């Protein structure tokens, strides 16, 4: 989480839409459910801190979020020997004592979530919160929403005082 802008002079905020692509060419993931949930969570955090949501054009701050999902591959080498050694050099050991490994390949999706808050007049970024998590296809909708809620809450712990 970064940014330490002076938020004492701001009282209102409004939402804007993040660009379709972020740095590194990651495409934005968007859905009506995610958008609604993000707005609810961020609105709650902003309002806890004394900011009021208003229509765009009459706000002091602009808020946007960017979410992306990308397939990842994790490769792990696992030692499959029996866990003992004869004390002999490897070229003199019987075949059943030969060290061996197995390669495990794990495919999963990694989600990135970024929330940015900027000055509406200057369009300068004042604060940014970032979260990453592994996403599993068998995660329930409720589980995913809980993870987003937790991520937003953790992000806003570093939000500067007003």
Notable features of this structure?
five-stranded mixed β-sheet; 162 residues; 20% helix; Double Stranded RNA Binding Domain
Q: Explain this structure to me?
A:
With 162 residues, the chain is of the alpha/beta class. The chain has a domain of 109 residues: Double Stranded RNA Binding Domain. The protein has two helices and five strands, in the order βαββββα. Strands 2-1-3-4-5 form a five-stranded mixed beta sheet. Helix 1 links the parallel strand 1 and strand 2. Helix 1 runs parallel beside helix 2. The longest helix has 17 residues. The chain is elongated, with a radius of gyration of 23 Å.
Give the topology, please:
Elements: E1 12-15, H1 32-48, E2 52-53, E3 61-79, E4 101-119, E5 125-135, H2 141-155
Parallel strand pairs: 1-2, 1-3
Antiparallel strand pairs: 3-4, 4-5
Uncertain segments are none
Largest sheet: 5 strands, mixed
Summed over residues and divided by their number, the pLDDT gives a mean of: 82
Q: What is the percent of helical residues?
A: 10-25%
